[in-house]
Amino acid sequence: QVQLVESGGGLVQAGGSLRLSCAASGRTSRADRIGWFRQAPGKEREFVAWITWTGLSTYYADSVKGRFTISRENTNNTVYLQMNSLQPEDTAIYYCAARTSWTLTYDYWGQGTQVTVSS
User: Fold this and answer.
1) Residue 64 needs a FRET pair 20 to 30 A away by CA distance; which of 18, 93, 104, 114 works?
2) Is residue 75 scored above 90 in pLDDT?
3) C-alpha span between 5 and 31 (Å, rounded)
4) HEC string of the chain?
5) Do the Cβ atoms of 51 and 70 come closer than 8 Å?
């Protein structure tokens, strides 16, 4: 099993910044990628960004490209999502997830952290 714990959410004004953390533990060798997803009230969950476990590759949704940066701290198995220029439409519960290297599906999920952006 892979355990994931998100933190860093909160309330911020439009134009502000937040940094989310995703701490991974357990059998992290099972994962080849960590992704961030978000779900706004009344909407389906959507992809935000991913980073390979090596940290060498990243990918972003168009809606956050240029504003969000995903990174990985190797020493403590933590993945970060730096969010700048936040807008009210970024308001959502943010989840990190680990993709299993042999199923290529996100099989492990954290509990989520709330991000609220006020206008």
Assistant:
1) 104
2) no
3) 15
4) CEEEEEECCEEEECCCCEEEEEEEEECHHHEEEEEEEEECCCCCCEEEEEEECCCCCEEECCCCCCCEEEEEEHHHCEEEEEECCCCHHHCEEEEEEEEECCCCCEEEECCCEEEEEEC
5) yes
| One-letter amino acid of 47 | F
For residues 99 and 49, give the distance between their C-alpha atoms in angstroms, rounded to a whole number.
13
The contacts of residue 97 (CB under 8 Å, 6+ apart) are: 4, 34, 35, 36, 37, 106, 107, 108, 109, 110
Q: pLDDT tens, 18-67? A: 999 999 999 988 899 999 999 999 999 999 999 999 889 999 999 999 99
